[in-house]
Amino acid sequence: MEALLSEWRLRIQPRRSQTIRITSKRPLFAVGIIAALALLPIVTVIGIALLGETDPAQWRHLTQAVLPNALGTTLWLLLLVGFGTTVIGVGTAWLIATYEFPGRRFFAWMLVLPIAVPPYLAAYAFAEFLTYTGPVQGALRAVFGWQSARDYWFPDIRSTPGAALVMGVVLYPYLYLAARVIFLMQGRNIADVARTLGAGTGKVFGRVMLPTARPAIVAGLALVMMETLNDIGAVEHLGVRTLTFAIYDTWLSRGSLAGAAQLAAVMMTIIFSLVLAENWARRRQIFHGSRATQMMSRPVRQLPSFGPKLAMSAACALPILFGFGIPVAVLGRYAFNRSEQFTSPALMDALGNSILLGAVVAAVTVMLAFTMLAAGRLERSRLLGSLSRLSTLGYAMPGTILGLGLLFALTTFDNSLDRFLRANFNISTGLLLSGSAIAVGYACTARFLALADANLRAGMQKLPPHIDHAARSLGAGSGRSLFKILLPLLKPALGTAYILVFVDTVKELSATILLRPFGFNTLATHVYENASRGAVEDGAAAAILILFLAMIPVLLLSYSLRRDKPV
Amino acid sequence: MISSAARLAAAATLMLSSAAMGAAHAADGETVNIYSYRQPDLIKPVLDAFTEETGIDTQVLFINKGLEERVQAEGENSPVDLILSTDISRLVNAKDMGITQPVDSEDLANSIPDEYRDEDGNWFGLTRRGRVIYASRDRVEADEMDYADLADEANRGRVCIRDGQHSYNLGLFGSLIARWGEEKTEQWMEGLRDNLARRPDGNDRAQAQGIYSGECDLALGNTYYVGLMQTNEKEPEQQEWAKAIKVIFPTIGEHGTHVNISGMALARHAPHPDAAKKLMAFLASDEAQKIYAGQVFEYPVKADVPASDIVKAFGELDADDLPLSEVASHRKAASEMVDRVGLNQGPTN
Predict the structure, then answer these.
(1) Do both B228 and B85 map to the same domain?
(2) Structural domain tally of chain B?
(3) Domain for residue B109, yes or no?
């Protein structure tokens, strides 16, 4: 890896000298502030870990009885989810980009859909679907005449492979989106060249397409891994004791927040290596990206024979069926039995809050991510680069832990401000930030900055630097070239980022439930409230609304991609 | 562009804060603010009755993880008056964190038995739930059992439980440690682990389903789930699960069944302490106890208020009289024991 890095440095040197240097410190300053705000909750958690009481017996217990299993389970889960999402996401993207088969345009559009399904709802739906009294086992018993569970063996969804299946089918769209864009644009030309040189389909995929798409795939994979790590809802429901789960046990069952924060710090180390890996992959992407956009060609698709055609349709239909069809069917049935819930004013209120929160958080997050990347384009400094990478770490933190960090930080600020103002001006501001929905918005922004950053970064890297140079040489200032040239060119990437952050905010549960003020429920917290009696089906109406609210923008996004235009 | 983006951000902030202000505004009159581990819909009937009787409004915020940390962090500006919890260890934890204050009320002291309230008046129990054994009607003959029997070799491969780290199980294990000591409890837990029919997972209902499906014959569960399943009109198949099981009230040697409580605590910095105390008194009244316990199929904490008919049909609850604060004090030991024994890994062979 070190060798690769130095090779990369050598190759990138000339480009760096071309960059027009500016003397202003403003970019660094802006990124510094954003990074400080984004890292505030994480730094607070690390503070709790370091300053909290450290009980040696507790650590011994964690390292002996908890960590080995939790680490093993987590790595196993990451491996399975990573493998599964890569096969599904990259595989379907490849089929869609390369072949013509029945339903191709429809699948191209629909394959993104499962991203609308939060893992905790998917876990619930799958558990119900595959349980003893569910439709699958019921049908098997009816067909084979079995009388009870002791008469046959059925794979248990409440297991690590089961959890990997559940997460895999709702998380693969991150890879599908990344791979599809790459296959559609830059890969196309290279693939055509390879084919004219006599390479067969398999060779084109393995030797040409896959290596070119690798940076994008690794970037998508990093997002998937972080989503897997931060999940608590699905693993809790399926009884898969990951590191995140162990953090919760340490905190809630053994009353040690410091111990939990220490485990969270262990997890941050894993995440940090993921981010580094992603970073490394992205740097290489600069290379492939910038030139290929200039030559676009209409994709030429191969027409396979009948059998393979059908197999391809099936391969694309299955992920949609699993990742979207089953959750909608299971939750839809429960919601249907409770249709009166749809008219409840509380649910409408929650719907409104979800839309408002999602819209605002997505706007702010995309704006911040754009600011960081624009600053990075103006000033290529290592410090600035590291700061903007660091500020995306929040994505991998379990929501409750991030929420706790933010809670302590914001209440400290609020209470100090209140004390100061009361002492000097006799004004009480109370819990200015932590007592309002701003805290929830802040948490979601800190969590999903990585998502906006990943998408904008990919979009930005496809814009060759000479575009800004041209603008600058024609007399435009750096700001003008950013806003008049880059921003319009980035519109598709901005749109993608906005939609993904919106969808994730609508799905967000654990930080929202901890931080929201009186009278502020979102759809996700509404589901959870109703389900808190131990029966998720009582929250089915709100759950269905989440799926549909998240589905609309996802379909819009997917539709814009369907025209096969590069982002 | 910058200014329009800034304007957008400003407008957004305004919208979010006004959404919050609306909520804060409602808190100005006489209102009791409640942070609750329990679903707001479940306590609504009692709270409505309270508002009708006293004219005092209530508002509830459901938080199920980090409730105590939130109150602690909010400090003196915290809006919360009353904390409602569904587990003894959360109540004890709230007291230990210094986020509660004692309530010196003769009414509360008289209506709530000693073992279900804090000796300093920092928390009070409201309802009780027994941690009982669900047994297959077809495959289990016994009608009386000791928790010790769950580890008996005769029951190899017959037992189902939910996650060993769940607070309901930790509560039971804590009371066993109090009664038996750590060593015996750990041996028992190893036996229980070896007797498991499957890896611990799902909620208490899923254990009843396991008996219905034939995977297990015995399971640990809370009493009220049986009531919830029996009366589930929306998912009638759960009524079938409930029919497959009978409730056995296990003993701990000569002591009765382990019970846990849901309860309440007055927040240390409660902005409306007087209104909150009125609500506390109301929640402990016969009227509220009847509504509340009937709603959730739990046992009223007051001895003279009868349980609902559905609950009474389970049989007679003879509760262990161990002070619940002692159960909570063994929670950490119980949690570590679960890890050490590997209970959640399931049967070893």
Answers:
(1) no
(2) 2
(3) yes
Coil vs helix vs strand at B97: coil
Identify which of A249, A334, A520 has the shortest CB distance to residue B23: A520
Structural domain boundaries in chain A? 54-116+158-332
Contact B203 A534 (CB under 8 A): yes
Question: Could you list the residue range(s) of the whole structural domain that residue B177 is in?
Answer: 129-258+314-345
Answer whether residue B270 is part of any domain.
yes
Q: Do B62 and A532 touch (CB under 8 A)?
A: yes
Q: With an 8 Å Cβ cutoff, are A438 and B202 in contact?
A: no
Say if B243 is an interface residue toward chain A (CB within 8 Å): no
Residue B15 lies in a domain: no
User: Is A407 in CB contact (< 8 Å) with chain B?
Assistant: yes
Structure tokens at B271: 């902005």
Return the number of other C-beta atoms located less than 10 Å from residue A305's C-beta: 7
Bridging pattern class, strands B245-248 and B124-136: antiparallel
Q: Nearest CA of chain B to the CA of A175: how many Å?
A: 31
Q: How far is B334 from chain A (nearest CA, A)?
A: 9
Report the residue of B201, B222, B343 to disrupt the A interface, i.e. the one with the largest count of A CBs within 10 Å. Answer: B201
- Alpha helix segments (H runs only) across B245-330: 273-283, 286-296, 309-312, 324-329
To test the contact with chain A by mutation, choose from B37, B42, B76, B165 the residue with the greatest count of A C-beta atoms within 10 A, namely B165
Domain check: are B241 and B285 in the same one? Answer: no
Q: Are A454 and A395 in contact (CB under 8 A)?
A: no
Query: Which chain A residues are within 8 Å of B228, Cβ to Cβ?
Result: 533-535
Reported as a pLDDT band with limits 50, 70 and 90, residue A368 is very high
CATH code, domain with B165: 3.40.190.10
Distance CA(A320)–CA(A247), nearest Å, equals: 33
Do the chains contact at B77 and A248, CB–CB below 8 Å?
no
User: What six digits make up the tokens of B238?
Assistant: 């759960």
Reported as a single tens digit per residue, the pLDDT across A137-191 is: 888 888 888 877 778 888 888 889 999 999 999 999 999 988 887 777 655 566 7
Chain A nearest CA to B110, separation (Å): 30
B205 with B251, same domain: the answer is yes
Which of A37, A513, A533, A536 is best to mutate for the B interface (most B CBs within 10 A)? A533
Q: Which residues pair with B262 in a beta bridge?
A: B127
Nearest to B39 by CA among A508, A255, A525: A525
Q: What are phi and psi of A552, to 5 degrees?
A: -60, -55
From chain B, the residues in CB contact with A514 under 8 A are 63, 65-66, 70
Per-residue pLDDT of chain B (349 residues; tens, 9 = 90+): 444 555 555 555 555 554 444 444 444 468 999 999 888 878 888 999 999 999 999 999 998 888 898 999 998 989 999 999 988 989 999 999 999 999 998 888 888 998 899 999 999 999 999 999 999 999 999 889 999 999 999 999 999 999 899 989 999 999 999 999 999 999 999 999 999 998 888 888 889 989 998 889 999 999 988 988 888 887 888 898 899 999 999 999 999 999 999 999 999 999 999 999 999 999 999 989 988 877 788 899 988 888 888 888 888 899 999 999 899 999 989 999 999 999 988 886 5
Among chain B residues, CA nearest to A349: B19
Element (H, E) at A328: helix A326-337
Retrieve residue A115's tokens. 């991203």
pTM score of the predicted model: 0.84
* Superfamily designation of domain A54-116+158-332: MetI-like (1.10.3720.10)
Answer yes or no: do B75 and A415 touch at CB < 8 A: yes
**Within a domain: B328:** yes
- The token duo for B177 is 């440690």
Please, what is the average pLDDT of chain A?
Answer: 81
**Residue B159 and residue B94 share a domain:** no
**Nearest to B315, CA basis, from B261, B247, B253:** B247
pLDDT of A282: 58
